[in-house]
Amino acid sequence: MRKAACLYVKYVDAFNGGLGRIMMWGIFVMAGILLWSSISKTFFNPSLWTLEIAQFAMVAYYVLGGPYSIQMGANVRMDLFYADWPPKKKAWFDAFTVLLLMFYIGVLLHGALNSTAYSLGYFGKEPLVFYWDLIMAFVTGGPSAATEVMGYIERSPTAWRPYLWPVKVVMLLGFFLMLLQAVSELFKDIARIQGETI
């Protein structure tokens, strides 16, 4: 089990670390979008897409950078008492709080699964069945068969009216990666409790 946990931590931390370092550049993407928004409003006709694209970029920046933030311990922490505790007590406390984090991320992941299915035109109560049908239709019949499984594709109610499923898929992926990183942190905490490091 220890070898499997070490491999899990190694690969999850490496993937989330690489993705997090890439997502750090997202701040410049958002700045560029908002700069173009200011320029277009001042000198040209205002662009309809800038506000929503900036919001979508912010979602990607925040949600896909979240696992790296968890990994680096960069999340907000009130360490009024925590800072003076011995390492083993910190590990016990961290293991308990990461279980609460995993529950919270599980709730977010459940909501993201339902919301993404809704944005792809599914209005039922079994989104996993919908995803399975969508994947099987794509594998057996290609994109046109997958399109037949989907219903009315959700769009934003603004003047630009972009499709919402891409940003919801990004949120779904980000929550899943956060859950994987939380499990990695739990393995590290358990190892510290046992006096080892992973």
UniProtKB/TrEMBL annotation:
Transmembrane segments: 21-39, 51-70, 91-109, 129-151, 163-183
Keyword vocabulary terms for this entry: Cell inner membrane, Cell membrane, Membrane, Transmembrane, Transmembrane helix, Transport
Ranges for domain Tripartite ATP-independent periplasmic transporters DctQ component: 30-116
InterPro entries membership: DctQ, TRAP_DctQ
One Pfam family here: DctQ
Family recorded in the similarity comment: Belongs to the TRAP transporter small permease family.
PANTHER family per the UniProt record, alphabetical: 2,3-DIKETO-L-GULONATE TRAP TRANSPORTER SMALL PERMEASE PROTEIN YIAM (PTHR35011), SLL1102 PROTEIN (PTHR35011:SF4)
Job of this protein: Part of the tripartite ATP-independent periplasmic (TRAP) transport system.
Name of this chain's protein: TRAP transporter small permease protein
